[in-house]
Amino acid sequence: MILEFEFEYFGNNDYFAYLLNFYAKDYKYSLNQKENKILLQIKGDENELSAFCENLKGISNSVFLKKFDVRSAEKLNDHKQDFKHCEKFSYLTHLNSHAYAEKKELLNNEWGVFCENEISLDGFYFEKIDQVNFNTFLQKAFEKLVNKEEIYLKNHKGNYKISLFDEKFECDFLIPCDIKSIQTIFVCSQENLKLLASLEKPLIKLRLNAIFRKKYNLNFNEFKLMLAQDLFTFALCCELYKQDFSFLSVVKTEEKKQDFEVMNCDEKVVILQGLEFINHKVRELILSKENKNMARISYILSNFKQEVFLLELSKEYEDILLVNKELNLLKLDLPKSFKKLYEEIEKDEIGAKLLSNFSKEFPLLDEDFALKNNFYSLFCILGRILNLDEEFYKAGEKLLKIADETKMPRGVKIDYRLKEDKSFDYTRTLRSAMSFMLAGVDSTNIAYGAVESLSYFLRDIYDELRSKNQAKIAVVSGSLFEHKSLLKNTLKHLKDCKLSDAPLRI
User: Fold this and answer.
1) Residue whose C-alpha is closest to residue 142's, from 236, 249, 228
2) How far apart, in Å, are the Cα atoms of 215 and each of 220, 434, 438, 505?
3) Cβ contact 489:451 at 8 Å
4) What separation in angstroms does the CA of 171 have from each of 175, 190, 249, 270, 414?
5) I need a surface site. Which of 168, 205, 404, 462 has the fewest CB within 10 A?
6) What is the DSSP letter of 147?
């Protein structure tokens, strides 16, 4: 009897295939990973196949695993993968976490890695954690933490200062001492819980529950969370949870590599940052380039065979609307001051009348600003006009936060258009918003309308490209798409719009 497992896996790495190989190696099997599919066949009698399926339940899930199917097969294929030169996976897995939780056993993971971390009790002298010193350091770390002192851990991604969480959120992220702790302060769906507990143990930003926010009078709604990634931190959390401690507070004091961060958006996994789970040769190539962002974009484009319309909308870089892998359709030249903006608006009679009426109801601003030519900067200008904050970039962030948190089904239609020379007409966008302000439309409606209308603008460009057979799919990229209001609308309105396994930002 032969069982065939087909996994849809969108990650450019062999970590999950290695796990399948590890648990299949004592059976007659075939394993083949090609593009976004992993095909595993297992041959055996009913008892053997039942035992394998039980083992399979213990394999840590992956954020890159979309779905899998199981069926019977007539013939066992002859495919085997060579993992001799595979990159070792240093994180905690179900194998060693379960062994510790059940029997206090100190096991290596499936790659033969015990614990990557080095520990320091004073922040200066670090020592590698191994099976010999594990329990000694565990006891010392436990005592330091319960005495409200810090410990320090170091690994390939950087240095981390760890202390007990004191409800002050003066840290980069939290680690729950037990999964049951999460619900005490966070709203966590089953989808997010599954991602947190996955093989990759990503950072995820979760919403704080209303009771906790009200109790501590918090002026923010979300915070980042990560489960223990290594056996030592896992064991430390187990011991702390027994003493009724719920969370560890983590500050990254030195960054060598970005932590892997994801977001769940309408059951789609969005990779926000971190190159850790991209093929190591590709990762090294990207990091070796002077312009790492363009190297990341080149990698994204290389993953698609069809004609791609790439939407690279960023907070840190100039925006790009790329077709044919080299032609940027976006010509965006934003003003560097409100004086320049008002001069542009006044160039025609309608604009001059609008500005005159606007000045009677709202203050005209006199500010210069350093900005990138991107839609994020346009949102910052609009945020200042709406008086969401006196600081330029904070105004833009507040506009996007309003758009992300609103429950309204649609906003007002803000004007996005190109001039005759195909350059982007930013004055029409801002004039449109100012007109709605004069009409008494509230800032929430305008903020969401500005984001929603940008997705319509992108759709119109994409539809024209599709009609000319210049693009078959659209791919989103760039840190502006971290905002769910923009991402959801873009994925909704652009047909065949894709996400990549590369992070949105680098």
Assistant:
1) 236
2) 13, 38, 38, 34
3) yes
4) 11, 25, 6, 24, 38
5) 168
6) T
Q: Under a CB-based contact definition with an 8 Å cutoff, are residues 264 and 204 in contact?
A: yes
Residues of the chain with pLDDT below 70 are: none
Terminus-to-terminus CA distance in the chain, angstroms? 47
> Residue 341 in contact with residue 347, Cβ under 8 Å?
no
- For the CA atoms of 145, 150, 152, 158, the dihedral, rounded to the nearest 10 degrees, stands at 120
Using the structure block, give the residue that is written with the tokens 């709406």: 386
Residue with tokens 């702790």, as numbered in its chain = 181
How high is the pLDDT of residue 325?
A: 84
Report the SS3 class of residue 116. coil
Per residue in 9-42, is it b (16+ CB within 10 Å) or e — as a string? Answer: bbbbbbbbbbbbbbbbeebebbbebeeeebbbbb
pLDDT at residue number 168: 87
Alpha-carbon distance of 472 to 99, in angstroms, equals 49
Closest CA to 478 of 461, 470, 490, 466: 490
Separation in Å, CA 4 to CA 9, 86, 274, 470: 16, 24, 33, 39
Q: What's the confidence (pLDDT) of residue 145?
A: 97
- Position 420 scores a pLDDT of 86
Predicted TM-score (pTM) above 0.85: yes
Q: Which two tokens stand for residue 307?
A: 């004609």
Query: What is residue 203's three-state secondary structure?
Result: strand
Paired sense of beta strands 308-312 and 473-477, if any: parallel
Task: Give the number of other Cβ atoms within 10 Å of residue 326's Cβ.
Answer: 7
- Cα distances from 422 to residues 327, 429, 432, 433, in angstroms, run 13, 15, 19, 21
Q: What pLDDT sits at residue 290?
A: 94
Task: Write the secondary structure of 430-459 as one string of H (helix), E (strand) and C (coil).
Answer: HHHHHHHHHCCCCHHHHHHHHHHHHHHHHH
- Token pair 């970039």: residue: 393
Residues 6+ apart with CB under 8 A from 358: 364, 434, 437, 438
Q: Which two tokens stand for residue 35?
A: 């593009």
Q: Which long-range contacts (CB under 8 A, 24 or more apart) does 492-495 make?
A: 492/455, 493/455, 493/456, 493/458, 493/459, 494/455, 494/458, 494/459, 494/462, 495/462, 495/466
